[in-house]
Sequence to fold (268 residues):
Amino acid sequence: MLMKQIVLIVVFVSPHVLFSLSISFQVINMNVCIIGGTLEALLLAMHYQEKGTVSIFEIDAELGLPISHPGRVLNPSIFNEYFSPQQIEFLKLSSNPDGWGCRWEWVMKHMTSVAASKGVNIYPRTRVLSMEQLHDCIRVITTNNERHQPTQFDADLIISTHEESTKPGRLQHVLDESLTIPFKEQEHIPWFGGTLLTLHHPYPSMPKPALTLSRSDGQTEVWWKGECPWIPPAGYLETCSGTLSSLVDDLSFDAIVQRVSDFIHSLE
Fold:
């Protein structure tokens, strides 16, 4: 039965149990809840939408905001699988030694639109309050938002892609780790990113960034591991900070697509 297969996966993937298990299952009409409005969540949602019903819960008002990821793709043709030529124009792609620079906020906007058009239920301004195992499903209780959406969801599979916030007082989802499969990534460290006009880059006093990504809109992103090491005399147009993988190779659209594919294959 479907539920027996899903429960086994949740138990053995739980971080509190040191077991390894490989289970192959084919399912249809699944109810899947994904916690966190990340790019990983959107890619997972589009995959599982083909098998049933998927709901994404995001605390913030929009998915992917505030931006905390470099606008970077290594092989821009990968976008053709997800976006129209008109949408790709919005990304402002430009070739760099570190990869193609792009506007990450538009990557997230387009991916959200594509997921919604495929039938994924997306609930912003929504926080998970609790979850409990019932006889044949996991019940998820959430807050309500201004759209008067449901606050109770029954799921066969729950995946968490969200990262714990480091902001003091910030509300968090309330998760039961024994009922949730975490989308585990590599060890995360703090990163700082700043955007400045390309005509102002580089400054002679600028320390070498770990990533430099110019875009065709006349702006350049510079990213360093750790805290902000330098501020340009004219200031930044925009700054980003958050926790990301310590490996630069992990920080691209392509790398995220590959990690999601690997994660899905590990469950099926």
